[in-house]
Design goal:
heterodimer, A: mainly alpha, two-stranded antiparallel sheet, 65% helix, B: alpha+beta, 2 domains, 5 strands
Chain lengths: 340, 176
């Protein structure tokens, strides 16, 4: 059977909604980049970018102009079609994954009931993993089609790393899915009305966060673009707008992971202690919780050094995977025992 | 394996890498690292935004040279003796002396420096010229922003050395 959709609107509203969500995603990425650079600076006792605009807040605009007007070039050894399509795959999958993050319950907007999400699919996490699996193709093709050894090594590492950590990430989510009894992300949020899943699933949360760092290629797991050894990893040979696409996809993936963690472990748009605010504040609550995660991502980047490749692999397979399996198993047993 | 020898009593080794213990230690150390970086965040920045904000120099800092005049008469202190040029190890000072006349009195002494040039691009800021000068006519100032686009612009003439600097370099107080 095909996946069912929880609630959907007329087609024209869905199109408008898709455009709005894409625009929101487009606005979020520059904000995250400037926030990251400013915060990293503060963590290291310096200002960060502060030359363009007030407090350097217009730096992303200057960068976009610079990068978009750069010359497009590619190495002689590259494979043209694949070289060009790799960044497109990366950015498309990142946008697609962003579509399922729920920002609130369906709201009355000018007399029409509109769900504050791209799509409420009944297979939320599976959809997410499907698209993050397709995103590997962007990285793999980008590295391989560049025709450069550094890009190729980076792509190989990326493939190995992402596949090993996706297993743990998925297993960590299984615990939540068993507890909530649904795969729909809005359903999972509604299941957290009594208690956020970060409390009963704290081990799962830690595993999910650790695996997410590896999934989004961020320190301490940014082996993929280890600049000391691999120049820049899979996008060594990219420049200008194509490079921006990769960078954009990377930051968007970070935002998506923050959104998924918010939805699944921090109760989505729910507020603690039974506080109820009007419905229009729900997206703000979700954005606030996402900000917490993004700040945490940046904080970790300022703190931890990069792992060695064998440390990364042994950590993923020998520690994270058994822990995630154990977490799933215990959750399943507890759920069965409590239900009886 | 390396043996510490008899004179050494204790050897501190890093903990053996293990699965559970290693994970626990890594988690604890991560938390400690997060605390450290958060400390940097709360204690503020230590950047000095250079072009707008300058580090004060010490009073004895040897920067760009200055030529001096007598404050009461306005006459130049330099008498064109060329002792500074003789003392200069980098050979970057050029002095051409001329006689003072009653109509054209430039310095307080018998002669004055008609040409006084310092090639800043060769100067090593040793301060020997200052030491050699019998009249304290040349001293080392506090300015250090002397870069230019052209080498010929780095030959400072007497007028440039006599003029007050455009930017006043901040000075450290005694004991600061």
């Amino acid at each position: 059977m095909l996946a069912t959709v929880g609630y959907y609107e007329p087609a024209w509203i869905q199109i408008v909604k898709a455009i709005v969500i894409a625009l929101v995603a487009l606005q979020l990425v520059p904000i995250v980049t400037i926030a990251e650079r400013k915060l990293l600076g503060r963590f290291q006792g310096r200002y960060g970018p502060n030359r363009v605009g007030p407090f350097g807040m217009l730096t992303p605009i200057a960068e976009i102009v610079k990068l978009a007007t750069k010359e497009q070039s590619r190495p002689d050894t590259s494979i043209g079609f694949l070289y060009v399509s790799a960044p497109i795959i990366s950015i498309l999958t990142a946008f697609a994954a962003f579509a399922i993050i729920p920002f609130g319950d369906p709201q009355d907007i000018f007399g029409t009931k509109v769900g504050l999400y791209g799509l409420d699919v009944s297979i939320g996490p599976l959809y997410l993993f499907a698209f993050s699996a397709i995103a590997f193709y962007g990285i793999m093709l980008g590295g391989w089609a560049s025709g450069s050894k550094y890009a190729f090594l980076g792509a190989m590492r990326a493939a190995a790393q992402l596949i090993s950590y996706e297993v743990s990430q998925g297993l960590a989510l299984v615990g939540v899915i068993i507890t909530a009894g649904t795969l729909s992300l809005t359903g999972i949020v509604h299941a957290q009305a009594g208690m956020w899943f970060i409390v009963p699933q704290c081990i799962g949360f830690l595993i999910f966060m650790t695996a997410s760092f590896a999934e989004t290629n961020r320190t301490p797991f940014d082996l993929v673009e280890a600049d000391a050894e691999l120049v820049a990893g899979y996008f060594t040979e990219y420049g200008g707008a194509r490079w921006v696409s990769f960078l954009f996809a990377e930051y968007l993936n970070m935002i998506v992971v923050a959104g998924i963690a918010t939805t699944i472990y921090l109760g989505g748009w729910m507020l603690p202690f039974g506080i109820h605010l009007p419905g229009w504040t729900e997206p703000l609550v979700v954005l606030f919780k996402m900000t917490l995660f993004i700040v945490f991502f940046i904080w970790i980047r300022a703190t931890l050094p990069r792992l060695r490749y064998d440390q990364l692999m042994s950590f993923g397979w020998k520690i994270l995977l058994p822990l995630a399996t154990l977490n799933t198993l215990i959750t399943a047993i507890v759920v069965v025992v409590v239900d009886k | 394996m390396w043996s510490p020898g008899d004179d050494q009593i204790t050897v501190q080794r890093a903990p053996a890498p293990g699965a559970a213990g290693g994970l626990y230690r890594a988690f604890g150390e991560t938390l400690r690292g997060l605390k450290t970086t958060l400390g940097r965040l709360t204690e503020g920045v230590s950047t000095i935004s250079y072009p707008e904000q300058k580090v004060p120099v010490y009073p004895r800092f040897r920067g760009r040279h200055k030529l001096h005049r007598f404050e009461d008469t306005g006459l130049e202190k330099c008498v064109g003796c060329s002792l500074c040029a003789a003392a200069c190890p980098a050979d970057c000072i050029r002095v051409v002396a001329a006689e003072n006349t009653p109509e054209n009195r430039v310095s307080a002494g018998e002669r004055y420096a008609a040409v006084y040039e310092i090639n800043i691009s060769r100067c090593i800021f040793c301060g020997y010229c200052e030491v050699a000068c019998p009249f304290d006519a040349i001293t080392m100032g506090h300015d250090y922003e002397m870069s230019d686009y052209d080498r010929s612009d780095l030959i400072f003439t007497k007028e440039m050395l006599l003029a007050e600097p455009i930017d006043i370099t901040p000075l450290r107080r005694e004991g600061e």
